Amino acid sequence: MPREITAYSNPLIKWARDLRDKRHRREARQFLAEGLRILTEARETGRLPSLLFFAKPSAHHPLVQELVRAVEAAGGEAIETTPDILSKLSGKDNPQAVVGVFDEFTSTLAGLDRSSSGIWLVAERLRDPGNLGTILRTGDAVGAGGLILVGECVDPFSVEAVRASMGALFTIPIVRTEWQPFLNWLREGPGQLVGLSLDTDFDYRGARYAAPTFLLTGNEAQGMPSDYAAACDLLVKIPMLGKADSLNAAVATAVMAYEVLAQQGGTTRKA
Amino acid sequence: MPREITAYSNPLIKWARDLRDKRHRREARQFLAEGLRILTEARETGRLPSLLFFAKPSAHHPLVQELVRAVEAAGGEAIETTPDILSKLSGKDNPQAVVGVFDEFTSTLAGLDRSSSGIWLVAERLRDPGNLGTILRTGDAVGAGGLILVGECVDPFSVEAVRASMGALFTIPIVRTEWQPFLNWLREGPGQLVGLSLDTDFDYRGARYAAPTFLLTGNEAQGMPSDYAAACDLLVKIPMLGKADSLNAAVATAVMAYEVLAQQGGTTRKA
Q1: Which of the following CATH numbers is that of domain B3-103: 3.40.50.720, 3.30.465.10, 3.30.1330.30, 3.40.50.300?
Q2: CATH top-level class for B109-263?
Q3: pLDDT digits (tens, 9 = 90+) for B122-134
Q4: Do B244 and A130 touch (CB under 8 A)?
Q5: What is the pLDDT of residues B202-250, one digit of tens each?
Q6: What is the b/e burial string over B218-227, where b = at least 16 CB atoms within 10 angstroms of the residue's CB?
Q7: Residues of A with CB under 8 A from a CB of B
Q8: Which of A129, B16, B46, B177 could pair with A158 in a Cys bridge, judged by C-beta atoms 3.0 to 4.6 Å apart?
């Protein structure tokens, strides 16, 4: 049976609320995800929160009841609380029906099966959590094998990144690594490293993307370092006709990824 | 000569700071834009702030000096202030060198020249300011003729939208209108209305996009109403192979817009 907490001063509420803070999240190695859609998607991929907060008015929703049963069956705890407290946990005025506390999880390079997909996304020093989440969401949509984060990237478990991923955080593998280990791993097997660059005239539609293609997107403000660009098998540019000289990083990644997907026949993911 | 304000309690600072608030912005019909890059881009398109705040440490930057001269020559006021006050104006910890207060401006349907571009972006009930700004940025990159906002959309002059647009707010026409006036205007001349939809199996790469193509993107959560979809000349779908059933609205718009651009030869904008 779920226990009930209605006081914002409750230490467990405060502890969960603090997971919005990066330092606290890093120590706890846990993170917050919110919303029935995302938590149900997580459950379908086999991930359940160790703590599940749900609002009393939502207690009779079938999906909430399923989540509560699943969390309790797995040894986690379900806690009934108020919409107001849920709102404070999620930091949004219109609180979601549920907020979950999940254990962090990432994959390792060694754990990736590069034959599992024709498209892999690689981002280096990505700074914006919304961009990271959006890239995950795009990765899910194109059937990417995973997202490889190189160097000092924003935390994929931040509330903003989880929210922007719309659940894709749970559906595609995420690896956090550095440039040299990534490059070493990449060169141990087949794979074309394609860098998005402003310093080339080679149009992205003119290239051929064999499977597996690793799409490298650089830092939002600076792009990628020149030695990273030099290590790419191919540098391509997305044409820009306007006054500005760049696209949003998540947009550029998506435009590229859909070109690769189209060339690879639209169905790169193994069943 | 710029005057100097160093007190946060100064009424002008407070007034400008309040432009971050929607209601105050609507009354004043003015908005904030920040950063040397964006303000310089605005100047190049002929738009100058009526008020320009710059931080004392940046006073000797040539681009800041050019902006100050241009603003004063145009009858506006330049105000030297502290990095701390600039930070409070912009709401960011790392303040930009400059923050400007601009008069709002929008275009009207009647003022658009549909022969000026092969691509037009149309968004209905767009809710997220980051998405709106990112769509503007993409619009600039593909040489779109303009962005037409249909129905109750988020304010394109919000600080978040202006920031995400990276200056594209100043480079492409924005029209705010309702569905029926838009449709009436559209049907007065040539133009194909293409709707992004999940309720079709027609792959976006299989369609032909004649100039001018009007790309319609629906609300982030609900998509577009069925009667809007019925009014489209064509509904297309971007394939999604993953567990989720949707893309970020700005991402979907960009993937579509770049397909249209590629089909139209990559150079749709008149010189």
Answers
A1: 3.30.1330.30
A2: alpha beta
A3: 999 999 999 999 9
A4: no
A5: 999 999 999 999 999 999 999 999 999 999 999 999 999 988 778 999 9
A6: bbbeebbeee
A7: 41, 44-45, 130, 134, 137-143, 164, 166-168, 171-172, 203, 205, 238-244, 246-248, 250-251, 254-255, 258, 261-262, 266-269
A8: A129
